Amino acid sequence: MSNRQSSLTAEECRGVAAMIDHALLDPTLGRADLEAGCRLARDYGVASVCIVPWAVSLAAQILAGSGVRASTTIGFPHGANATATKLAEARAALADGATELDMVVNLSWVLDGAWQAVGDEIGAIAVATHDGGGKLKVIFENACLDDAQKIRLCEICGEGGADWVKTSTGFGPGGATEADIALMRRHAPATCGVKAAGGIRDLDTLLRFRELGADRVGASRTAGIIDEARRRSGA
């Protein structure tokens, strides 16, 4: 079913905002840009601001009391950091006020089929994240993987206690696809949400991914998406 130009209720409009992790991950963004992005996310009532790691404390300060979470990335964007480095990043981000972490898997291990190492790393970071009061999203970078690898990652994320599985960094060779969202929702356990990221530039794409099972999306064009949702709801 197409969502194109479908009308929305006021509640559905709020639901759109509640799906969005507003992305502030461009490494060229300066402090003023990051502050403005946090204020925009706060005013629109999104789920979280996913901000570059050095600015987590800044985001947490701006978002305090708003209900919008501060989140950041771990092992970003390539996933090639040592596990000890990722753990240090995670603990530092949580100490700075992050409550959600988006961690990139070690793609070399995935492509080599080193599933024990993949699972050990995801499990260790999930424990550290949960011990620090946060939740963990695990980024696959699906454009580099085949379906069997994606399915095994979904299973391992469930076994390791991840809170979401996520399609991509937005900095890799491809972004979220309908096929991947459907596949991840089929194979991730019910305890894991599904986050779509990479190439989500309009409301209709968000609605289609929601229909296929995504409950979060990463987006930088947040204002345009929510403004369109408000227009369709008459808000």
> Architecture, CATH level 2?
Alpha-Beta Barrel
Structural domain tally:
1
Strand content: 15-25%
CATH topology: the name is TIM Barrel
Helix content: 40-55%
| Strand arrangement across the biggest beta sheet | 1-2-3-4-5-6-7-8
What composes the largest sheet? 8 strands, parallel, barrel
Low-pLDDT runs of 5+ residues are: none
CATH homologous superfamily assignment: Aldolase class I
Structural class designation: alpha/beta
Spatial gap, N to C terminus: 24 Å
Number of helices in the DSSP assignment: 10
Mean pLDDT: 96
- The number of strands is 8
Name of the CATH first level: Alpha Beta
Spatial extent as radius of gyration: 17 Å
Backbone shape: globular
Summarize the helix and strand pattern as letters.
HEHEHEHEHHEHEHEHEH
Would you give an account of this structure?
This protein has 235 residues and is α/β, with parallel strands linked by helices. The protein has a single domain, classed as TIM Barrel (Alpha-Beta Barrel), CATH 3.20.20. It is 49% helix and 16% strand. The protein has 10 helices and 8 strands. It has an 8-stranded parallel β-barrel with strand order 1-2-3-4-5-6-7-8, surrounded by 7 helices. Helix 2 links the parallel strand 1 and strand 2. Helix 2 packs parallel to helix 3 and helix 7 packs across helix 8. The two termini are 24 Å apart. The model has no long low-confidence stretch (mean pLDDT 96).
